[in-house]
Structure formats: structure tokens, C-alpha cells
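Sequence dictates fold. Below is an illustrative record:

_____
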Amino acid sequence: DPKMPFKGADITISVTGNVVTLASSVVMPSGETIQERETLRADGTETAGTLTPGVVHVANWVGSHVLALITKKGNQNIALITYEVSTDGQTLTARTSGLIEQVVIFKRREL
């Protein structure tokens, strides 16, 4: 999205059963780094967001390679985000629709 430019981004997704932790680090054009982390359940249970007051997340697995996440505030859906891992496990495609429309493709690298 040209309204939200960034220089680089890393995302880490950790899964333990139905508990998913999403951690991101985004480098803005100014060089500032923004780090965020959310932990939620991927079983359709509403999970209170920790980054924005009043926000809840509802996540579900859509097959073995796709996590779908709906972010809501009150009765309003703010965003639908899907995280899809390629069949070879080398890329992650994050698609966001709602207040921000964007597609970001991440390439796997070993830490």
C-alpha cells in the first residue's frame, strides 16, 4: 500500500496446538523499527488484542497452510488477514483487506 511504505519487514509465526503467536518487525522509511506481537487462538475463539484497546481477533485454520484472521472492534470488522505458507514452505503470503489493502510476500530464512 503506497500510503504505508516500509523498507523491510520480518514476521515470525509460532504455533503450539491452537495457540498462535505472530511477531513482526517493520523498518519504516525513516529507519524507525516497529515491533509488535500478538498471541491468539486459532479455533474461532475471540481473543482480546493487546496492541489496540477494544480490538478482538478471531482466527481459524483454513486447511493446513492458511491461517485466516479477522480483527474486529465492536461489531465492525476492521481487517481480514490471511497468512498462506507455500507448499514448499519457502514463502509466506500475507493478504490484508479492510482499512488497509495490501499483499506482502515473505521469503523464508533461517535465524
About this structure: Strands lie at 8-16, 19-27, 33-41, 47-48, 55-61, 66-73, 76-85, 91-98, 102-107. The chain is about 0% helix and 60% strand. The chain has a mean pLDDT of 88. The CA atoms of residues 72 and 78 lie 5 Å apart.
